[in-house]
Amino acid sequence: MTSHNCNLNIWAHLPDEVWNTVANIYERMPGWRGYIDGIPHWFGQEDEDVYIQASVEPSGLSFFARMNQSDWDSWIGAFKSEATKVLGFEVGEPEDGFV
């Protein structure tokens, strides 16, 4: 298992309507476990071998995960794709030019 971190161009200042849509995307993603202490989790928690969690940071929507590389690539790719479809803008990492 390896650790992964990803920031996406879904900014904290976006309207509640956008964040409600993001919450709906969370629930449709594989491994959804729900909110634990207000933090969205997939697959498990920090004390388990495999998990993903998200938080809203100044740098955008941030994900932290521990899982194998191919599973992470597949999961975050699916999240970006779904978010792009439903939010109406291309979702990606700011350091890759997505603003």
What does this structure look like?
- This is SRPBCC domain-containing protein.
- This protein has 2 helices and 5 strands.
- A hairpin with a 2-residue loop joins strand 2 and strand 3.
- Helix 1 packs across helix 2.
- It has a single domain, classed as TATA-Binding Protein (2-Layer Sandwich), CATH 3.30.310.
- The termini are far apart.
- With about 100 residues, it is α+β, with helices and mostly antiparallel strands.
From the structure above, extract its key features:
99 residues; TATA-Binding Protein; alpha+beta; SRPBCC domain-containing protein; 5-stranded antiparallel β-sheet; single chain
pLDDT averaged residue by residue: 96
Structural class: alpha+beta
What is the CATH topology assignment?
TATA-Binding Protein
Q: Mind telling me the C-alpha Rg?
A: 13 Å
Unreliably modeled segments: none
Q: DSSP helix count?
A: 2
Organism: Paenibacillus phytohabitans
Protein name: SRPBCC domain-containing protein
What's this, in brief?
This protein is an alpha+beta fold and 99 residues long. It is 32% helix and 31% strand. A hairpin with a 2-residue loop joins strand 4 (51-57) and strand 5.
